[in-house]
Design goal:
8 strands; 6 helices; alpha+beta; about 30% helix; four-stranded antiparallel sheet; two-stranded antiparallel sheet
């Protein structure tokens, strides 16, 4: 909730200086790296509840343009929620007339993976099959995150070979995006996103979109370029 408040208010919770991206450009067409120009913003006061509340109202008024909730959040302890539990929550919301367009699970690797008769990689495969079934039932986008393998830590670009636990994860998704970042890019709050898998279109693992964000205001995607 703190991140959501910082995002809609465009201000960090505490007094601080932030570097806000205003322009991004690739160094060259053949380069995997981009240059980001930022401006310094200073916040001399903490984010007040009045400012946060007004920012939320402004989003409802100008962007959502509705008094009805377009967003619902359900919080659970690590490894206590199964896909069946998510399905039960969605069914309760459906009874009130609220049906999701997007389901975000943060994140798949910390769901409750206990399942009678299955162990190891088969448990992982079962979770990803069940997440796919959610998208099929509700005809919506299901988004989650997963860890890459240890070899990806030293690589410039993540590929389909950098799976963790079970390679069948890629078999159940419509698309899988790699989040690439060198130590230098981390300092600059810059990421490179590439398609690792894509079911319904041609793609190249080496083609990246460069994205500059500002974590201080909980926004990872402010400026981007190909």
């Amino acid at each position: 909730m703190r991140r959501f408040i910082e995002r809609v208010s465009k201000q960090p919770m505490s007094k601080r200086k932030i570097k806000y991206p205003i322009r991004i450009k690739r160094k060259s067409k053949k380069s995997h790296f981009a240059r980001v120009h930022r401006k310094i913003k200073r916040f001399d006061k903490r984010l007040s509840w009045k400012r946060a509340k007004e920012s939320c109202r402004e989003v409802m008024r100008k962007k959502i343009k509705s008094k009805k909730p377009y967003f619902k959040l359900s919080c659970h302890f690590n490894s206590t929620l199964k896909i069946e539990g998510i399905r039960s929550i969605l069914q309760d919301w459906e009874k009130t007339g609220w049906i999701p367009d997007v389901i975000v699970i943060d994140y798949a690797d910390i769901l409750d993976m206990s399942h009678p008769g299955l162990e190891g990689r088969d448990l992982i495969n079962q979770i990803w099959k069940q997440m796919r079934s959610l998208s099929q039932k509700y005809h919506c986008l299901v988004v989650t995150a997963t860890q890459a393998d240890a070899k990806s830590y030293g690589k410039e670009l993540i590929t389909i070979s950098n799976f963790s636990e079970d390679k069948r994860k890629a078999a159940h998704v419509t698309g899988m995006v790699g989040i690439n970042q060198t130590p230098d890019e981390k300092e600059k709050e810059l990421q490179r996103l590439n398609w690792v898998a894509l079911r319904e279109a041609w793609f190249s693992e080496t083609k990246c979109v460069h994205v500059a964000g500002c974590l201080s205001i909980a926004n990872t995607a402010i400026k981007s370029c190909w």
